[in-house]
Amino acid sequence: MKQAKTSVAPEDTIATRLGPQPFGETREPRDTRETGQTTRNARDHRREPKLGLFDEPVGPDYRRARESGADEPVGSGQGLSDTRPDSTPGEAPAVTTSEPSTEQRLIEALQQRGKCSPGDLARARKLTEESADPLRLMLVRLGLVSERDMAAAAAEVLSIPLIGADDYPETPVAEADLSLRFLKDAKVVPLFETEQALGIAVADPLDSFTTQALQMATGKEIDLKVGLPTEIQAVLERLYEQPSDDDAEAEAEAQAELGNFSEEDIEHLRDLASEAPVIRMVNQILQRAVESRASDVHIEPFADQLKVRYRIDGILKEADSPPVSSTAAVISRVKIMAKLNIAERRLPQDGRIPQRIQGKELDLRVSTVPTMFGESVVMRLLDKESVRFDFDALGFDGLPRERMLKVLDQPYGIFLVTGPTGSGKSTTLYTALSRLNTEDRKIITVEDPVEYQVPGINQIPVKSSIGMTFAGALRAIVRQDPDIIMVGEMRDLETARIAVQSALTGHVVISTLHTNDAPSGVTRLLDMGVEDYLLTSTINGILAQRLVRRLCPNCRASYRAQPELAGRFAHIKGLSGVVDLHRAVGCDQCNGTGYRGRLVISEVLLMSEALRQAILAHATATEIKRIAIDEGMETMYQDGLRKALDGRTTIEEVLRVAEVD
């Protein structure tokens, strides 16, 4: 597509002063806007020189009005208030002021449609007070209300049409009068132009300033319609931006399939990823992740969608999707931030992004994997400042805590932490190291990657590409005179054997495994090839854990458990037949979910003589578990029931993550 012939605006123009206008970041509409009718006071301007949107500078009054949040320009300078022929110096145009209840009616419409819960509204309102952003903007920014639901509610409240993706023009409209810069900043697409009127689609129909500017520039009535912000952005890119490289992108993808990326293709990807809209898009994705307390961000390309999902308290929640046309640009932007090879789209890559978001120093672990429709990106957010390496804060208490501390007090031997990915193993390891980190001990860790930097501990990152593996690093650090060694994961037999040998020579070794429970940790090492007599001589204990969502203390509600459910708690000593539990409700402090944060449920297996004999006899994991329970081990399920009884979580959460005994 040929480059659109748009006018270039000077610096001191309305476009400059309007600035970027995301959905809802503007003022209430006038009454004429709320009725959905075209504006009628534009005809007086038709014989005045057009502003050319925006080739002519305007006075300072419009800027002051825009920045102060006033509905009208102020003062008597040479701003927009002086361009009307029927206005006198110092007199603002006679335009009816907007109804103060417009946004409230918008919120009510969303609630009536079931698109905005009281908890979501309370959370957004609280953040609005802190940031001074409009409530409607905050709801969309947090992902609590989708942009489609917000646009539909606005169309209903203001009685104006909501248009679809097929309703936009095929060629630019009024391109001689309207600059691309203004259209992008104000999120406006001209739809049609007649001698008397200009039809436009706007992302925020409550923005009266944009309508005024268009009215003044064209001298025409403005016929207003509502469009989705992502659709408007995609249309602007299609109609105006150059180059429009559908064919070039297809060719680049074909070359990627063949592994023959040219320098021009790489530069094109860099250019796409460096455009301001793409940068804002990625920054907004990360900002929403922090605001939502997400632990992971998933960016997944599909045939007709670029899906964004957040993992919040262990549960994936879908957010608003960027336009599918931005897939290559968004993913390339993330890869550039993580210092990955943007030309390589056939192989998985890993990287890191140090980022400061909302005053927090974050470390983002980035993983990319090629899929049918592009690269899937997952970013894990590690909050360096807010993390607390404290067993109480993690939820360790009672018998599991007592048994775990007993293991950590041993002068040598192996302590294993097991569980699936995302079960909090690394945090538990760091908490254990923080407890053991004293001046009279030397601690060395081997990690892939180093997640948190702990003062006083020597931390070694694994770099397999240059031969620095877990096993290779372990062989080196045993000559560094350590007291305690932490291995991020026992991935193979070589690493496991070196860890066992280190424990036999008087070191404390802490590591992780991927197993479902503590007894399975023993059988997993046996299956890897570690000799049984070495395991029985070196393992002090194995901790298995899961994370359950913590009930919000502000809104949880108690209830009397039915007899069938109460029977699950019969093993707890001192408990009568009556069992009172708690359920999730939802409030502003927990974003309407009923949960806030997570806590650990765990089980700790302590090595004993009976267990040693069972392991040497090649007992199964089930037999090992039975012996451990007979010797006093409280299972994860039992620990979870106790925490549900205490009102810290729900029975549903325990059943979701723990195997029923």
Pick out its properties:
661 residues, GMP Synthetase, Chain A, domain 3, T2SS/T4SS_dom, alpha/beta, Rossmann fold, 37% helix, 18 strands, 19% strand, ATP binding, nucleotide-binding, AAA+_ATPase, disordered N terminus, six-stranded antiparallel β-sheet, 3 domains, 26 helices, ATP hydrolysis activity, Beta-Lactamase
Strand content: 15-25%
Quick one: how many beta strands? Answer: 18
Which sheet architecture does the biggest sheet show? 7 strands, mixed
Structural class comes to alpha/beta
Query: Judging from the principal axes of the Cα atoms, what is the shape?
Result: globular
Query: For the terminal residues, how far apart are their CA atoms?
Result: 65 Å
> Helix tally?
26
The CATH superfamily of the largest domain appears as: P-loop containing nucleotide triphosphate hydrolases
Which bin fits the share of residues in helices? 25-40%
3D structure, described in words:
It comes from Halochromatium glycolicum. Keywords: ATP-binding, Nucleotide-binding, Protein transport, Translocase, Transport. Residues 478-492 form the Bacterial type II secretion system protein E domain. It catalyses: ATP + H2O + cellular proteinSide 1 = ADP + phosphate + cellular proteinSide 2. This protein has 661 residues and is of the alpha/beta class. It has 3 domains: 14-113 and 171-238, Type II secretion system, protein E, N-terminal domain (GMP Synthetase, Chain A, domain 3), CATH 3.30.300.160; 246-383, Beta-Lactamase (2-Layer Sandwich), CATH 3.30.450.90; 391-549 and 598-635, Rossmann fold. The chain has a 7-stranded mixed β-sheet with strand order 12-11-13-14-10-15-18, with helices on both faces. Strands 6-5-4-9-8-7 form a 6-stranded antiparallel β-sheet, covered by helices on one side. Strands 1-2-3 form a 3-stranded mixed β-sheet. The model is unreliable at 1-98 and 243-261 (pLDDT under 50).
